[in-house]
């Protein structure tokens, strides 16, 4: 006769934790090499229970930031029309680009529309704040918060087509199969959220980001760490609502019976994986309650909604910014927002005039509101906000329907706020045409190393053994950009 | 907070060092180079003192015996056999001087005291050296002598058991007893066909008194056409099979004929050598049949980048690199991709060897942009896929779009005039031509592309087009499949400096890695390469495949790192058994069915899977296989089991991919929004194998249960256990349909009393009746649902039974092979 079914599942779980650990490894959980699990234990001290791979874990050293909100501007916004002010480029508008700059270089659309005539910005720039940062008239709200930002003008990447470049910015590799930064961070630090996912992805704009789920995938890490895409309308998580006609009470009664039967089987087989499953159902049940509450903005003050520019019932970047703050408040570790479509080649729907202006309007107010809101709530010191695309745009015009700009990887702008970054700073310079970064070049690998550093993680030690090799987000590269640290 | 006790930590340390505690050289036993020393050198030293000439420090190389004995530039002998105190290696690892100590502090690698001591003892014992096991061809070992009868167990009659029991006996562990018949049959049926047995099949087996009752079941299941479906799945994982092109555009592709080829080949037990040769080089076989060409789809499952503005050559090369990487993991168990940019850090695979393999795959006609290239696609004249219903629905969608576009001629007149000449010059010829035709005279296709070009974000239009596109994929359409086909003149291949295709280095000719047996042909082709895998002196091919088949049955391979047999991989837990199976596989004519039969008839396979608390410390990971292991089913099988239990399964084999329901909005996650129009009729209930796989937006119920992403070869699936899985089984529309069907079936077929109905429900899902406790708990649930509570009215009997069906379909046991 099996033991009575009234055992407290939580108590039972903790009693079985040690065996659980063994069984979990016996099942070969997702290729976790045993050694790396053990290293992880050593690294974090033997405090984290194995039962929950998402339980919070101590970082390698005292962190400056605990959480990340990453505003990903998909398509590659033009730094030359927003932040990187180049009077010389305006003077030389229409002149050919100096051949020395482009000799031997490859660009997207080489055989077709790629152009070699310089294109000065048509936007009005002004200096703002104590830092005197240049910001164009397209970002009036962002201009007001420059003293909270670290603006890095010297970012550089390796790949100039969207899908590989987006992968590179997210995973440190243009090839498929590597974990995304959010997955690495959740793997390294776990999550404080008890009833919401640790890594959440929110999307807005005319279409999904190129490449899709691999941008927030786990590669060879266990799928527990993958980004959970929330939807802009309806249920934020797939299958969150009880099936039609099944009330909360009936669902609970069903779940209770399920738990009791699973528990009996756990005892009968000694397989602790069943306890993980019981815990997963309990978490799922809590998510059913907490996720709708998360996206219910009715308790936010009208002032807050107005500040972000949230319109009731309409999916938008603004709404996602507010949900990002609410997620971090509830303990999620890494929230990534994608806003499309910044691909300003000059063709229909992607011109550098009305389309670009529309994109700017869609993000400007909300991103500034997010930083200010976090600051006022005392959350900015623990929350790192990252803003940027997968690359920038060329100083040369591209000849489509209208004149736009092509993809550019040698210099582009990203900005950071909070989380131990140095507020009111401008890092790196580009040459007079904005073509190359000439000081403090910040390569994607360096940015990754620095972001992990802010979170208290040593990018050389955050590793996972796969196919006989210890993999890292930064591969074999990465230098910490100390000028970015407060 | 639970804290690990000291004993378990020491166990963990031991386990980290080798495999199981008993495999480490104890104080008395001699040090074994392969097991004890090689992994330490590989992990800690090869990074700077290994095969990669580019990163080698001080001229010291420790991966080859002669170099290690010779020492580095310093002139000091690194290793003096028998004399640890004269060996510089020992002096350096025990040094406390930060400038002297090895591994150097900046390498972030360290040696434990235990590892240092092992190295010292190894040199003292003479510094014996052995070539890495995986590069030495397997020889057929004799069965272990200890496999005789003991007072604990009778002599094992089965060769696998002889090896397994010998190791267990050494460790003084008894194997677990055989699982009960109903457990055994469910395990066997799921492993061989991916479908659970029917209650009648279980009853028949439980009552079968014949001594070969079990073997009869094995033969019956191996002969089932569903066997090919079940075993096609792991192979398709390796082949990175998908029904779309990947990258950002992720357009649909037709290559399902290749999937069906795999199923059929497994069902007719095509010998593994033929199976592989046809997939790698079927197009080059003399008088190649259509079937043999279809098989070459294996290497056409690479992604195709249709993004605008790319350099097609770059992505053609990416495909070739993917083919090399897949060749390495699928057949050699080697991580060849490491040598793409530099000499391999751990294994003797110089960068040049990588590009010699690359050369074999570098001369096919397919380009990097997916333009239809002659020879890259095989058409099936007269074969049309799709249904009448799909055709009617597509006709209706066309009329609807036609009506929508009829009203938009005025806009067109304006666009024509306003388009910039530069932009116009870039349009496709077809689009340019359309601009010269008045709106009223344009075909629907022309209007659609013109409107789509000028008005991108019009939701009304987009929705219509997405729907029509999806329906047009379903309606009658000429069947084609992607194949490999050689150019008349081969492309020249060079090394790429740092793996960068814009930096060609030295030219190379096709050839195989120097560490492996030579390929005899003078100007070898892809066909020679395929045949080379099956040369008698080939050390890896058979081992890699038997290991991958083994891991499906036991959850872990005899070599745990199934895709890395190199020096960074784990050593085999049972090296003799691995070699015995490998030689048996080759000697038996490479029959995969014979190998399946061999494994599942062993007592080792037939053991029960209950945990062994007595072994929690001595063999916690069950490396010695003193029991079976409970394994959560693969994504497709989680659904297949529910389909069978509910009686909904449409067991038809093969054909174009199908579209079972999925939640709205999933397709919006990719760059190109595409509609997902759920299949109607029995296509809703086909096996998971046939669900259309979009790389950018895979079916969420598959992805959540760890179906691989089809971007690169997957040789072993992850088994995660997450809340999103719980939500899927609980609330997903498909699973509700299954629960409703199961409830209806139980009410109809289960008699008139609840006990009998419960009995049937359990047998359908779990192949067993409920225990008394389970029965009473579910009877309680039936009562609860049918009682009013908290102001909620009583549910109907149907509703109560749906609740029971949901419990059963969500049970861990239902989605687990015990």
Describe this structure in words.
The complex is a heterodimer of chains A (486) and B (818). Chain A is of the alpha/beta class and 486 residues long. Chain A has one domain (56-239, 298-484): Alkaline Phosphatase, subunit A. Chain A has helices at 9-15, 17-26, 34-44, 87-91, 99-102, 140-143, 162-171, 181-189, 248-269, 273-295, 302-308, 317-329, 354-376, 444-454, and strands at residues 67-73, 125-128, 133-136, 149-156, 199-204, 228-230, 334-339, 383-388, 392-399, 403-408, 412-417, 425-427, 429-430, 437-439, 442-443, 464-466, 469-471. In chain A, a hairpin with a 2-residue loop joins strand 16 (464-466) and strand 17. In chain A, helix 9 runs antiparallel to helix 10 (273-295) and helix 12 packs parallel to helix 13 (354-376). Chain A starts with 8 loop residues before the first helix and ends in a 15-residue tail after the last strand. Chain B is mostly helical. Among the domains of chain B are: 22-130, no CATH class; 387-475, no CATH class; 733-817. In chain B, 45% of the residues lie in helices and 3% in strands. Chain B is built from 34 helices and six strands. Chain B has helices at residues 6-17, 33-44, 46-49, 65-70, 88-94, 113-124, 159-170, 181-193, 199-207, 213-223, 225-238, 256-267, 272-281, 290-295, 312-332, 351-360, 388-406, 409-418, 421-426, 429-435, 444-454, 459-474, 526-532, 541-554, 575-587, 592-600, 603-606, 635-646, 700-703, 723-731, 733-749, 754-766, 772-785, 797-810; strands at 377-385, 477-482, 493-496, 504-508, 631-632, 816-817. Chain B has a two-stranded antiparallel sheet with strand order 1-2. Chain B has a two-stranded antiparallel ribbon with strand order 3-4. In chain B, strands 5-6 form a two-stranded antiparallel ribbon. In chain B, a hairpin with a 7-residue loop joins strand 3 (493-496) and strand 4. In chain B, helix 8 (181-193) packs across helix 11 (225-238) and helix 17 (388-406) packs across helix 21. The longest helix of chain B is centred in the middle third of the chain and has 21 residues, at 312-332. Chain B is globular and about 90 Å long. Chains A and B meet through helix 2, helix 3, helix 9 and helix 10 of A and helix 1, helix 19, strand 5, helix 30 and helix 33 of B.
């Amino acid at each position: 006769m099996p033991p009575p079914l009234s055992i407290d599942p939580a108590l039972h779980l903790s009693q079985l934790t040690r065996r659980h650990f063994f069984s979990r490894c016996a099942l070969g959980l997702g290729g976790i090499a045993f050694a790396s699990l053990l290293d992880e234990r050593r690294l974090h001290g033997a405090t984290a229970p194995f039962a929950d791979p998402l339980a919070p874990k101590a970082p390698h050293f005292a962190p400056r930031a605990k959480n990340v909100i990453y505003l990903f501007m998909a398509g590659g916004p033009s730094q030359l029309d927003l932040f990187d002010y180049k009077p010389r480029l305006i003077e030389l508008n229409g002149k050919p680009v100096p051949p020395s700059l482009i000799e031997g270089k490859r660009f997207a659309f080489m055989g077709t529309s790629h152009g070699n005539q310089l294109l000065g910005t048509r936007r009005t720039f002004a200096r703002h704040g104590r830092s005197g940062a240049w910001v164009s008239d397209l970002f009036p709200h962002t201009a007001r918060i420059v003293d909270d930002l670290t603006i890095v003008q010297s970012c550089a990447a390796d790949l100039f087509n969207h899908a590989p470049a987006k992968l590179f910015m997210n995973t440190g590799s243009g090839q498929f199969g590597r974990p995304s930064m959010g997955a690495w961070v959740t793997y390294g630090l776990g999550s404080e959220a008890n009833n919401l996912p640790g890594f959440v992805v929110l999307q807005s704009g005319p279409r999904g980001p190129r490449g899709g789920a691999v941008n927030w995938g786990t590669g060879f890490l266990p799928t527990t760490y993958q980004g959970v895409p929330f939807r802009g309308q309806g249920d934020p998580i797939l299958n969150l609502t009880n099936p039609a006609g099944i009330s909360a009470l009936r669902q609970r009664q069903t779940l209770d019976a399920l738990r009791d039967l699973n528990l009996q089987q756990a005892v009968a087989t000694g397989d602790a994986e069943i306890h993980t499953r019981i815990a997963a159902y309990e978490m799922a049940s809590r998510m059913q309650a907490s996720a709708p509450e998360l996206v219910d903005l009715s308790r936010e003050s009208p002032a807050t909604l107005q500040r972000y520019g949230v319109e009731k019932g309409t999916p938008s970047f603004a709404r996602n910014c507010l949900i990002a703050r609410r997620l971090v408040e509830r303990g999620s570790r890494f929230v990534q927002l994608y806003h499309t479509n910044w691909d300003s080649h000059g063709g229909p729907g992607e011109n550098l005039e009305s389309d670009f202006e529309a994109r700017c309007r869609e993000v400007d107010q909300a991103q500034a509101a997010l930083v200010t809101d976090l600051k006022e709530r005392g959350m900015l010191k623990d929350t790192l906000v990252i803003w940027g695309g997968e690359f920038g745009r060329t100083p040369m015009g591209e000849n489509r329907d209208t004149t736009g700009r092509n993809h550019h990887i040698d210099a582009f702008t990203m900005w950071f706020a909070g989380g131990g970054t140095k507020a009111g700073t401008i890092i790196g310079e580009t040459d007079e045409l904005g073509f190359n970064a000439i000081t403090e070049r910040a390569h994607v690998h360096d940015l990754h190393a620095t972001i992990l550093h802010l979170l208290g993680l040593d990018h050389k030690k955050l590793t996972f053994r796969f196919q006989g090799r210890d993999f890292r987000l930064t591969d074999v590269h990465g230098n910490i950009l100390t000028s970015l640290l407060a | 907070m639970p804290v690990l006790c000291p004993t378990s930590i020491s166990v963990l340390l031991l386990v980290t060092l080798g495999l199981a505690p008993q495999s480490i050289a104890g104080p008395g036993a001699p040090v074994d180079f392969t097991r004890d020393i090689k992994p330490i050198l590989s992990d800690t030293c090869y990074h700077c003192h290994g095969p990669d000439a580019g990163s080698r420090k001080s001229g010291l190389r420790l991966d080859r015996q002669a170099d290690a004995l010779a020492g580095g530039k310093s002139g000091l002998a690194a290793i003096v056999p028998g004399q640890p105190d004269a060996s510089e290696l020992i002096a350096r690892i025990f040094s406390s001087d930060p400038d002297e100590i090895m591994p150097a502090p900046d390498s972030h690698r360290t040696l434990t005291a235990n590892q240092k001591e092992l190295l010292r003892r190894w040199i003292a014992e003479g510094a014996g050296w052995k070539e890495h096991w995986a590069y030495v061809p397997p020889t057929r070992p004799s069965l272990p002598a200890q496999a005789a009868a003991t007072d604990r167990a009778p002599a094992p009659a089965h060769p696998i058991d002889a090896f397994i029991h010998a190791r267990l006996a050494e460790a003084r562990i008894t194997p677990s007893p055989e699982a009960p018949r109903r457990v055994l049959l469910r395990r066997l049926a799921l492993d061989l066909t991916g479908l659970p047995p029917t209650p009648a099949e279980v009853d028949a087996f439980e009552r079968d008194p014949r001594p070969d009752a079990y073997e009869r079941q094995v033969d019956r299941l191996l002969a089932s056409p569903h066997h090919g479906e079940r075993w096609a799945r792991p192979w398709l994982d390796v082949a990175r099979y998908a029904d779309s092109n990947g990258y950002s555009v992720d357009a649909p592709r037709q290559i399902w004929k290749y999937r069906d080829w795999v199923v059929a080949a497994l069902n007719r037990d095509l010998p593994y050598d033929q199976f592989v040769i046809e997939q790698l080089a079927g197009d080059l076989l003399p008088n190649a049949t259509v079937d043999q060409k279809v098989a070459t789809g294996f290497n056409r499952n690479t992604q195709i980048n249709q993004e605008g503005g790319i350099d097609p050559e770059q992505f053609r090369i990416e495909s070739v690199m993917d083919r090399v990487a897949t060749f390495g993991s699928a057949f050699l168990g080697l991580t060849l991709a490491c040598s793409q940019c530099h000499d391999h850090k751990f294994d003797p695979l110089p960068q040049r060897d990588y590009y010699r393999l690359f050369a074999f795959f570098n001369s096919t006609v397919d380009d990097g942009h997916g333009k239809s290239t002659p020879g890259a696609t095989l058409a099936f004249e007269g074969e049309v896929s799709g249904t009448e219903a799909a055709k009617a629905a597509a006709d209706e969608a066309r009329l609807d779009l036609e009506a929508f576009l009829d009203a938009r001629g005025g806009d067109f007149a304006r666009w024509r005039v306003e388009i910039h000449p530069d932009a116009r010059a870039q349009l496709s010829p077809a689009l340019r031509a359309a601009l010269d035709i008045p709106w009223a005279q344009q075909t629907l296709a022309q209007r659609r592309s013109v409107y789509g070009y000028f008005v991108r974000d019009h939701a009304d239009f987009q929705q219509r087009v997405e729907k029509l596109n999806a329906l047009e994929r379903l309606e009658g359409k000429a069947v084609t499949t992607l194949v490999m086909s050689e150019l008349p003149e081969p492309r020249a291949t060079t090394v790429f400096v740092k793996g960068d295709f814009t930096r060609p280095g030295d030219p190379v000719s096709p050839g195989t890695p120097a560490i492996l047996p030579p390929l005899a042909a003078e100007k070898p082709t892809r066909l020679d390469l395929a045949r080379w895998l099956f040369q008698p002196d080939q050390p890896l091919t058979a081992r890699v495949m038997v290991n991958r088949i083994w891991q499906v049955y036991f959850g872990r391979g005899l070599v745990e790192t199934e895709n890395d047999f190199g020096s960074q991989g784990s050593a085999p837990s049972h090296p003799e058994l691995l070699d015995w199976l490998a030689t048996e596989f080759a000697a038996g004519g490479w029959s995969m069915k014979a190998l399946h039969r061999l494994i599942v008839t062993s007592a080792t396979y037939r053991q029960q899977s209950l945990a062994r608390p007595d072994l929690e410390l001595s063999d916690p990971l069950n490396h010695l296989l003193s029991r079976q292991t409970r394994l959560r089913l693969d994504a497709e099988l989680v659904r297949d089991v529910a389909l069978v239990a509910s009686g909904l399964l449409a067991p038809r084999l093969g054909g174009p991919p199908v579209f079972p329901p999925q939640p709205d909005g999933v397709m919006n996650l990719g760059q190109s929004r595409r509609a997902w129009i759920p299949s109607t009729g029995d296509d809703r209930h086909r096996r998971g194998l046939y669900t259309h796989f979009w790389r950018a937006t895979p079916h969420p119920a598959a992805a959540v249960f760890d179906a691989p992403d089809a971007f690169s070869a997957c040789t072993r699936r992850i088994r995660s256990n997450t809340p999103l899985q719980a939500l899927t089984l609980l609330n997903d529309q498909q699973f509700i349909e299954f629960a409703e069907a199961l409830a209806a079936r139980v009410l109809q077929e289960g008699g008139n009393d609840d006990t009998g109905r419960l009995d049937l429900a359990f047998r359908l899902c779990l192949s067993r009746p409920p225990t008394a406790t389970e029965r009473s708990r579910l009877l309680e649930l039936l009562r609860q649902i049918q009682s009013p509570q908290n102001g909620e009215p009583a549910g109907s009997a149907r509703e109560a039974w749906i609740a029971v069906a949901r419990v059963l379909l969500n049970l861990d046991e239902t989605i687990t092979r015990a």
